[in-house]
Amino acid sequence: MSDVMNTARVALVGNPNSGKTALFNALTGSRQKVANYPGVTVERKEGSVTTPAGCRALILDLPGTYSLRARSPDEMVTRDVVLGQLEGEAPPDVLVCVADATNLRLVLRLVMELKQVGRPLVLVLNMFDIAERQGIRIDLEGLGQALDVPVVTTVAVRKRGLDALLHEVDRFAGQTAGSITWHQPSAGEIRAAHLAAERILKTHVKPPLRPDTFTGKLDGLLLHPVAGTLILFAILFLMFQAVFTWAGPAMDLIDASFSQIGEWVGAALPEGLLYSFIVDGIIAGVGSVVIFLPQILILFFFIILLEDFGYMARAAFLMDKMMGVAGLHGRAFIPLLSSFACAIPGIMSARVIDNKRDRLTTILVAPLTTCSARIPVYTLIIAAFIPPREVYGMSLQGLVMLGLYGAGISSALIVAFIIRRILWRSASEPFLIELPAYKTPDAWNVLRGVWQRGQIFLQRAGTTIFAMMVLIWVLATFPYAPVAATEPAINYSFAGMIGHAMLPIFAPIGFNWEMSVALIPGMAAREVAVGALGTVYSIAGENEAGLAATLAAKWSLASALAFLAWYVFAPQCMATLGVVKRETGSWFWMWVMFFYMTGLAYIAALITYRTALAFGAG
Amino acid sequence: MRLSVLEIGGKGIVCGLDVSGHGGDVEEAELERRLLEMGFVEGAAVQVLHEGLFGRDPIAVKLDDMRVALRRREADAILLETAP
Q1: Which ipTM did the prediction report?
Q2: What is the pTM of this model?
Q3: What class has domain B3-81?
């Protein structure tokens, strides 16, 4: 047989929480590739394994679903791949339906749908050890005969039963597919299938002798209206703390490493264009993105841990009402919370939201929450303009900071509310989720998941975001300042020209030309604006106290407040825009975000400036 | 009796779905199929386990041998008869 004949394509299908991804990890180990299906944001995970017969099998991990009747983009991918109708994707040779052996009720109906696809099908009862421990007695032979499908038992996290599964793959690999008889089931057909599944279940599966009482007991606490909500906030607080503070040392280390690399490389290069491109453009540019890696890894560690434990569905349950006030789905709170650290992991974690519109709304508002990169800008302006007075026993500077945070989160909720009510008024996504039984997370699977998130982020940093960083360097570097230049070089560059050209636009909101020039390199990341202001005012080094004093002397209070208002809303971060492009799979939504945030920033700064002027702060 | 009116501990057997008043025809048919796919089928045993903090919404129910969370708005479409 030729090589082509020897490669079997296997697609893993199953309900959410069936341990499908754990089985995928157990089968393929480190031989995995994560990419996106073309044109959609759905992740495509493929890995390879050698079967007992010596064939190569390509395993495709499809998004979890209860039905082939697709509702979300993820489920559409599952349906189209299973039916062999996804463009650019070879039809699978063998379908493997993965089931949680302790929770077979819904998956049997999915098996019946999958049988209509006409491709060889294997049913895997995963987590079989838990079923045995609970004393669930499954008549495997009878079940297989009733469904007319071979049944295999596995324990993915212990790598048990994999050979038996691959043996079935070998047996089916050469078979040609039959005809597709699947069609969208009507309500009546779903009812009939449930009845049939129920009958099979009654005959071949005896209920547990020692049912899982742990989940019920723990839910009594974790879903308690008051205690459960408090515990959720405690967990969120811990996550926020971890992302915010634990990541600090690692971020400092990355920062220092990139400066060091810059110095080493710089020492080997002559002063000039190449030096500037490599040190200021590439190394500093990549460094300013990679610095977010620790936050992303820590955040996803918590998210994947809680997801595998079975807590995420509970958190969505507890938060649904509060998020619902703003028209957001219960699951949207994790992305919004993460965005306090950085909008990039926040937007990436919006993947936990199934519905496309809910996910888009969440992505669009996530950057409005106050990310940590705004803090250097806020502290600089506050230190320069807000007197260190006490108001009612509280520090005025602290109150202004708190107000800026409040403005961020409330604007995110208000914008979400407006998007849902005006743009997508008719679509109210039902909240209907399974609360899976609690399970001990498998360390290896959690770490693999975290590592994959990190890889995806670094790939992105290496492509889209990096390209944007280089663009900003070009704008801030060319053309050169004339030999007899009296002003800082940046003023003669494209960035300077753009800043000057935009001055008529920014003048009504109280910005001078130095501020509008600083906005261009500030697009690299918000905190870069601080350094850029230092550059345009020719303040040597990172002396923020000196810079604050200069700003206090050169800006009016009204301009400073307008600058703060601008930074609450403005999309001053290329990396975020790049991630939005990547996660939504379209330039359109990236521009929507850019324009609506810029519009909000402009209006907010205008109102702030005019109000401050009216109060004599000019 | 509708599932939406039950309090914690309240139980019943699903005897039908009534999705009228849940949006247009498309949304209604979609909601019915989703509820069916999640296991809210005639004959399924339901018991309310937990309620949310505000407005006692959403609710978590035991549905046969699994647990499902849903809003009272959706629960309103589920008709119950008293458990034997």
Answers
A1: 0.95
A2: 0.80
A3: mainly beta
